[in-house]
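Moderator note: this is an archived Q&A kept for reference. The question asked for a predicted structure of one protein chain; the sequence and the answer are reproduced below.
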Amino acid sequence: MAREQEDPALSRALDWALERMAQAGYPVKARVTLQVDPTLQFMGYARHEGGQHVIVAAGWALDSEMFGGFLLHELAHIYYTERQKPSHQSQLVNEVLSDIIAREGLTSTEAGYLTDAFNHLQNILADDIVFAILRSEREIRQVQRFFANWISDRPSGDPRADAALLARNAFAIASLKRRDIHGAVDVEMSSKNKQFLTFYGKDAEKTFVLLENFLEKARSNWNAKEFRRALIDYLGRMVALMRRERKAWEDLR
């Protein structure tokens, strides 16, 4: 497997992550390279180009204690893509997203939040692999703190953004409950989320529970038909949430 990093430290980091994937039973067969983008504001992403996979990391991410977990996360996406898991079949996903966006007449902002919601689902499935690899107490504590910092405790005032924040809270909490490692930060996360839901308004807790339960129980072994049905239902809930909140906002104007 060719890798073209000029920096030996980057090569070692990628080799370490690939070895851990293979040892855990998730070998990545594709050609993978690791690049650094010093202008990137978020930790990074993976893309497929020219017959190979490229992981792009922010310059600041190299010094993060979460860098190893980031590499495993992106390799998990690559692993699922290689095996054509429905959650990583771009044609299937794009068809569902495009159909909902067109049918519901979503604005570009709403379409962006809907895509974020899909990313939560795709990420929680990919992280099943990451959590199968991360086993030390130190690694688990890092992950707990990472997701605890995702929780919003107060709505922004923008109704569609707040629908996205509610979904993000659901993703963070589901990520730890799914692996039964939420104990150490459970009180903190639950308290912040409860405060968010209190400020959010009517039926917020019911909506949160529906989204959190779905993400907690989503399955990586769904076939294409099952995944499409689950994705349509999940994204439909997000559309209903954004539309309900938008209508309430417009009624107040």
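Archived answer notes: The first strand starts at residue 32 and ends at 37.
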